[in-house]
Amino acid sequence: MRRSVAEMIVRDPEKYAHHDRVFLNNPVVMQGMGLAPLVVLATTGKNALMLAVSVVLLLTPSRMLACLLSRAFPLRDEQPAKEELEKKLLPRGLIYSGSAAVVYLAVYPILNALFGVDLLALGIYLPMLVVEPLLIYRFGRVQETVQKAVSKGLRITLGYVLLLLLLGCVREWMALGTVFGLPLLSRPVLPMAGMPAGGFIVLGILCAIWRALAQYRKNYLKTKARNTVAVHHQKEANREHE
Predict the structure, then answer these.
(1) Containing H/E element for 214?
(2) Residue 224 phi, psi (nearest 5)
């Protein structure tokens, strides 16, 4: 572990974990974002893959476009005045959802070329990604830079896609005994896993396991960071004595 990273963890471990949108602060596991597509659509590995590709193509580009356009109505304070919010929240909301809609119109032909009629399995939930909190939740937040929009968008995308594919494969395995159509079991473990109610149950179990592992990882990083900082301080003290 690099000294700079170790010192950052020792100084503010929660802030360090907050920036890790893949595992330690996954948007679904820790904040409950994007639940509807996960529970309703991610019933098989193939459905999860189609939805994952959709999110990859939509999330970061729409976030970048919205970041650029929303500069016409910037929010510069963490806690802006009520008057400023009343003036800027509506146009910013329209910009963010409108940007996602524009990107969706450009992305749909690509998805159609990749998946064809199989894309119809996603139903209304595919265009509903345009108003998914994962894409538009920034509209009420402080104005971010394009670099930060890209960096954060990619990390959130990766975290969401990982959980999405994991959930889709687990639900298919439990409900059908297959993964991406390949038979792994002679009989289903839990046929209910293919239904939305079963999706909530499986997702809840996965989130509980994920949270436990994330907490274990946080504790491990804190301990390792303290040891790294202590070793560097000891080396510096030894050099001074020499």
Answers:
(1) helix 196-241
(2) -65, -40
Q: Helix 3-11 to helix 196-241 angle, to the nearest 10 degrees? A: 110
Residue-wise pLDDT tens digits, 15-38: 888 888 899 999 999 988 889 889
- From the list 41, 18, 47, 35, the residue with the least C-alpha distance to 160 is 35
> What's the pLDDT tens digit per position in 51-103?
999 999 999 999 999 999 998 998 877 677 778 778 888 899 899 999 999 99
For tokens 């109610």, name the residue.
Answer: 197
Which residues is 178 bridged to in the sheet?
183
pTM for this prediction? 0.90
Amino acid at site 30: M
Residue type, 153: G
**206/200 Cα distance (integer angstroms):** 10
In the chain, the amino acid numbered 131 is V
In the block, residue with structure tokens 């909301």: 93
From residue 100, give the alpha-carbon distance in Å to each of 1, 88, 135, 147, 167.
38, 18, 7, 18, 25
Residue 117 gets which letter from DSSP?
G
Q: For the chain, how big is the Rg over CA atoms in Å? A: 22
Measured CA to CA, the distance from residue 40 to residue 126 in angstroms comes to 11
